[in-house]
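We examine the record.
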Amino acid sequence: MAIVLHSSPLLWTRLAAMIFACVAFSLAVHGGRLHHGTGDWCIFCWAFSFAGSLLVLLIELFGLQTRAPVSWKNFPITFACYAALLCLSASIIFPLYFLKGSSGQGEVSIYRIVTTVFSCLATIAYIAEVSISKARPGEVAGYMATAPGLLKVCETFVACIIFVFISDPVVYDRNHALKYCMSVYCICFILSAAIILLCIGECTGCLPFPFARFLSAYALLAVVLYLSATIVWPIFNFDPNHGGSKDRPHFCNTELGLCSWDKLMAVAVLTGVNFILYLADLIYSTRLVFVNA
């Protein structure tokens, strides 16, 4: 089996991202002394990014793209976008939980600082890979290399973070309004994830309706749903008239990481972020329909 090695900015960027992610989780495991469940998440982010990049590099190195059971126009950039978001989340969460108040721990603190630095470098490298791989105007590329495809990745990732905050502790079962918000997050996440899987598996042609029109219709539905959730969630969590609390509790200042009130606020902000992402998705998808027409 011949080894194919074409030197390019994409290759070196992908290699750098893989090395940075490898160094990050190696340092964290070796000397970081991660005693909190959040540390496991950060290690997963770096290890998953490293393993995925290694897999992509090996497949391209041995010229196995045509034998891969996925669309190679869509898979590498989809993975790179997820890896960038994972490493970004780890770069934010890790210092929040493991650097805050650890100045007196000597060598352990140094390991954690260097781990954070390499996590940030991995994030930058993956963002650069996405930037190099994304479709240019007039270029024929897979859907996931376009702006709507990359937005789908961001939408599903933000939804996953919302699920983490909303379920630890469970905060959506107090009334029907919050259960409605949870249903919005679930419906939009499932449909966006299904679209990504259809594109990676090259199954969009199997649908009984035009894929581009389905994307526009779904984006419009998601915008309406998320707009309602953006309004409902803060009202029923921060308005005293609806059982909420607008003031941050004092015990939040002493808790490690985010307290329950902080998580409610984070969900409110992330809901707004996803609304903006779906709105941008709708604009791009509508433009795509008119261009194809």
In short: The radius of gyration is 21 Å. The first helix runs from residue 9 to 31.
